[in-house]
Design brief:
The protein is an all-alpha fold and 191 residues long. The protein has 10 helices and no strands. The protein has helices at 2-19, 21-25, 27-54, 58-64, 67-90, 101-118, 122-128, 130-136, 139-153, 161-190. Helix 3 runs antiparallel to helix 5 (67-90), helix 6 (101-118) runs antiparallel to helix 9 (139-153) and helix 9 packs antiparallel against helix 10.
């Protein structure tokens, strides 16, 4: 299992370093790239339980136990996106969030992701108890807020096929959660 951890860390850190090639060449592309990679990590994390259950690939079952690290790297990309974008476009003026719903949606999604990252440990699970699961289900709200934010603000990828694929994958993840988690629970309550 340590090899899997090493591969996750190596891949994620090298990918993060690689994106900094664009930091000096095209800052807007760099900001967008950080967001897209963070979103891909998030979608992959949310698809893992479904993939582990519905496929015979052992890799998905192994990666299911590594969601904490994948989430931390997801948060790293998203945090970099937020910090650099706030500095470059808004001079760190958080009051501008109040006047633009797209910015506000992105920032609320960032706060949710940050809270999930900070509570992705055994101590938080113990302290929060059943509320930990409720808190971590907010990831689906964060995903929808990110999509709204991306559709209204993204400079790169919005009109491209890449964005449409990400949109479809994100909606697929939300639909899977409803189909495999909420609907069966509603049926159980009615019985």
């Amino acid at each position: 299992m340590q090899r899997v951890d090493l591969l996750i860390h190596l891949f994620s850190i090298l990918l993060y370093i690689f994106t900094f090639i664009y930091f000096f060449e095209d800052l807007v592309f760099f900001i967008s790239l950080q967001a897209i990679i963070g979103l891909l990590y998030l979608i992959f994390i949310l698809l893992l339980p479904f993939l582990a259950r519905k496929t015979s690939l052992k890799a998905f079952k192994i990666l299911l136990g590594k969601r904490m690290w994948l989430g931390i790297y997801c948060s790293l990309f998203i945090t970099t996106h937020v910090i650099v974008a706030l500095g470059e476009f808004y001079s760190f003026d958080l009051s501008l969030l109040l006047f633009d719903l797209s910015l506000l949606a992105g920032f609320v999604a960032f706060l949710i992701i940050a809270a999930l990252t900070l509570t992705s440990n055994k101590y938080s699970m113990k302290v929060l108890g059943t509320n930990w699961k409720r808190l971590h289900n907010l990831v689906f709200l964060a995903l929808l807020l990110i999509l709204y934010h991306s559709f209204n603000l993204a400079v790169y990828f919005v009109k491209d096929l890449i964005f449409l694929i990400l949109l479809a994958l994100s909606l697929f993840v939300v639909a899977l959660k409803i189909l495999y988690y909420y609907l069966p629970r509603l049926k159980q309550k009615k019985q």
